[in-house]
Amino acid sequence: MQSGGPSIIRRSNLRRPTRSQIARRRATVVIAVVIGLVVVWQFWPSGANTGVAGPTPSTGGSAPPPSSGGPSPTVSIKPGSNPIQHVIFLVKENHTFDNYFGKYPGADGATRGKTLQCDKGNTPGPTVKLTPAPSIYPHDLGHAFVPGLTAIDGGRMDGFNCVPLGEDLTGYTQFSRKTLPAYWALADRFVLADHFFTSMYGPTFPEHLYTVAAQSDGIVDNKASTDHPGSYCDDPTEYTSRFPIEDLSQQDDRTIMSLEDHFLDNPANLFKIAGYWVRTPTCINIKVLPDELQKADVSWKYYADTDQWMNAMQAIRHVRFSSMWNQVQPPATILSDLKNNQLPAVSWLIPPEGNPNEHPGGGVNICEGENWTVDYLNAIFHSSAWASTAIVIVWDDFGGLYDHVVPPHYDIMGLGPRTPALIISPYTVAGSNPDGGSIDPTVYEFSSVLRFIEELHGLPAMTDRDAQASPLAGAFDFSQPPNLSFPKLRDRTCPTS
User: Fold this and answer.
1) 152 by DSSP, 3-state: which?
2) Which of 375, 319, 329, 369 is nearest to 349 (CA)?
3) Which end of the chain is more exposed for a tag (fewer CB within 10 A), N or C?
4) Which of 366, 67, 417 is closest to 207 using CA atoms?
5) What are 428-457's pLDDT values in tens digits?
6) H helix runs in 358-491, sequence order
7) Strand 421-424 vs strand 389-395: parallel, antiparallel, or unpaired?
8) pLDDT grade for 227, boundaries at 50, 70 and 90
């Protein structure tokens, strides 16, 4: 703690809950919010329609306002004339740009972070140094929709110590070249995107929906229960919360966005926002990019384990209960597909839970997660597909970890804090990074990857989000010959504590 400034209250002897315990607690919190709404809501009517949504697939809600700062596509990719034949979208878990790359030379990073005095009316707290990050975080941090709004605090970016379990400043930590050598080596050679934002405020389930659909159907939370076998469409007891986006008026959208911009100004703002939410099953029916890929006869696979938090395709009814489900395969399948020259045109690669996905807490070892990435990237680099491949690596939500850049406010869902983002290909833009790579300041979100794929194959946009997203316009240079070189990445011996 810095001297001479306001103090930050830290609790001692906190019991660190498991992810399942957190899910059960969240269900209890939802009940409490509903009870609170009965008392509080009469004083702040929302005008929301609280009926449960029907089965019609959603188109993603209203377009971002012109003043939202959203990017406009600057590069048009003619289908069939581009050397990229394979796109791999690798989605890991729960880190921010400042957490992984805040010290990277030339990037828009920070080594200090602002705080709030959470117990004193959310008044400004001291600015603290971001301390060295451990390979194994002591616990998880709050990173759902409400903690995302808390952390952003209307653009002040000072509420990260006020998210659940954030009081001990675990979120104010960052890695370095020494502690993330492989990721930094990839940034040296390829493109490090330093304005790549998560698509919404969090958490995992709806963020992963954005990676396949450029929307979450208004869903704002993870499932509220984990006490039955199966997941999403395989567990009819699972429910979550969503904005009924098909029923919200433009005035509703403006009201919600204003409440989000002033979230911590009044404790009642949480109840006002939650008053719009409705209960919904986690098995939904929205258009996903594989629908358009199949129509265009473009090959695809979604490499992910079933019955895990991150498998968004298991939540899409018409995918789970049709032949499309055959294209959802375990992550390791991509290794045999590479070996057998069967890599599809479009792939989602979702690491298993635990060390591979790098989710802080629960004994997860970030170093081992980086090793997993190294092993899979080396398989790609040494395959015949490498010469025509583009890989995008992101982390699905902010994980409760500090980031200093204010996200654009596109709509009622986000954007959320920045994700680390690496764009890897023989055709990435060259620059002044140590091994010839570059830093791309273009504003992106997960829908940007989908827009890039859509333009590669001449496909229409699915929602307002991918329609207005930059198709990774600042990351590629197709006017130059390909640079097939790649860093020599090796697994390293990881600390065990």
Assistant:
1) helix
2) 329
3) C
4) 417
5) 999 999 999 999 999 999 999 999 999 999
6) 366-381, 446-457, 464-468
7) antiparallel
8) confident
Kindly calculate the radius of gyration of the chain based on its CA atoms and give it in whole angstroms. Answer: 21
Question: How big is the CA angle at 186 (ends 184 and 188), to the nearest 5 degrees?
Answer: 70
**CA-to-CA distance for 209 and 215, rounded, in angstroms?**
6
Q: How far is CA 387 from CA 116, 299, 334, 454, 485, in A?
A: 48, 18, 17, 20, 10
How does DSSP classify residue 104? Answer: S
User: For 466, phi and psi rounded to 5 degrees?
Assistant: -75, -25
Contact 83/388 with Cβ under 8 angstroms? yes
Please name the residue that has the structure tokens 């968004």: 312
What's the rounded Cα separation, in Å, for the pair 399 and 365?
15
Give me the helices (H) in 90-218, please: 97-101, 145-152, 181-189, 204-213
- Euclidean distance between CA atoms 151 and 158, whole angstroms: 6
Centre a 10 Å sphere on the Cβ of residue 468 and count the other Cβ atoms it contains.
19
Q: Answer for the pair 385, 83: CB distance below 8 angstroms, yes or no.
A: no
Kindly state which CATH superfamily the domain 73-468 is placed in: Alkaline Phosphatase, subunit A (3.40.720.10)
State the Cα–Cα distance between residues 186 and 436, nearest whole angstrom.
Answer: 10
Fill in the DSSP letter of residue 12.
Answer: S
How many angstroms separate the Cα of 349 from the Cα of each of 346, 376, 390, 414?
Answer: 10, 10, 13, 24
Side chain identity at residue 102, one-letter code: G
Half-sphere exposure (Cβ direction) of 172: Cα atoms closer than 13 Å: 26
Q: For residue 93, report the phi and psi dihedrals to the nearest 5 degrees.
A: -130, 130
Q: Let me know the angle formed at the C-alpha of 230 by 226 and 235, rounded to the nearest 5 degrees.
A: 80
Task: Express each pLDDT in 265-319 by its tens digit.
Answer: 999 999 999 999 999 999 999 999 999 999 999 999 999 999 999 999 999 999 9
Cβ(395)–Cβ(211) below 8 Å: no
Q: If we measure between CA atoms, which residue out of 249, 300, 237, 21 comes closest to residue 139?
A: 21
Q: Is 150 helix (H, G, I), strand (E, B) or coil?
A: helix
- Residue whose entry in the numeric block shows the structure tokens 């103090």: 7
pLDDT of residue 271: 96
The whole-angstrom separation of Cα 136 and Cα 364 is 6
- Exposed, middle or buried, 336 (CB in 10 Å: 0-12/13-18/19+)? exposed
Q: What are phi and psi of 458, to 5 degrees?
A: 65, 40
Report domain extents, the chain: 73-468
Cα–Cα distance for residue pair 103/91, rounded to 1 Å: 22
| CA neighbor of 247 nearest in space, from 63, 52, 412, 410 | 52
How many Å apart are CA 379 and CA 63, to the nearest integer?
40
For residue 324, the SS3 value is helix
103, 174 Cβ separation under 8 angstroms: yes
Per DSSP, 275 falls in state T
Comparing CA positions, the residue from 341, 345, 314, 317 lying closest to residue 329 is: 314
